[in-house]
Design a protein that fits this description.
Elements: E1 6-11, H1 12-15, H2 27-36, H3 43-53, E2 62-67, H4 77-83, E3 90-94, H5 116-129, H6 137-156, H7 158-164
Parallel strand pairs: 1-2, 2-3
Length: 171
């Protein structure tokens, strides 16, 4: 929680629509177009902001998350490396595990999802913590029943249950 002060998340499929693959861009240009412009920053302000957070003392506190490496054409892989990866200290690149794309990595993490037991525990905990702590017993019982109904429904619809094995789908 204390490791990063700034986390920038980019959907690569959207990112490559705004940039020509034949041209190298600076990180502050990419940040401006994709994020900072929407926050009301002018281009000069974006450059100053990037200079400030990318200084020697603070650059360890910046993380770039580049989501969907497998969703962009291979012709953009070199562009991404030249424009972003070589110019930032910390980054995470996400991709589907069986996309056939080779990426050099320091660490590989695979989200294997929930087992049936994990999924049931998650749903029970979700419905138990929902709402106020000072609720009546009848309200607590009603929430528990909602969780049970959801689990029964998921068992009936196998395709939905299959999607729920991936934790991000449950949020």
């Amino acid at each position: 929680k204390d490791r990063f002060e700034w986390v920038f998340i980019f959907q690569l499929k959207k990112l490559v629509r705004h940039f020509e693959k034949e041209k190298k861009y600076s990180v502050d240009e990419i940040l401006h177009v994709e994020i900072l412009k929407d926050l009301g920053m002018e281009e000069k302000e974006s450059q100053e902001f990037w200079k400030e957070i990318n200084g020697e003392e603070r650059r360890e506190k910046v993380l770039f998350v580049l989501d969907g490496y497998d969703e962009i054409g291979k012709e953009y892989h070199g562009w991404m490396e030249e424009s972003i990866l070589k110019n930032v200290r910390n980054y995470i690149v996400t991709s589907r595990p069986y996309s056939g794309i080779q990426v050099e990595e320091d660490v590989r993490v695979e989200n294997i999802g929930f087992t049936d037991e994990n999924m049931e525990e998650y749903i029970h905990r979700y419905f138990e913590r929902e709402g106020e702590e000072e609720e009546k017993e009848s309200e607590k019982k009603e929430k528990k029943e909602k969780g049970e109904r959801l689990l029964k429904w998921m068992k009936r619809y196998v395709s939905v249950k299959g999607m729920c094995h991936i934790p991000i789908n449950l949020e």
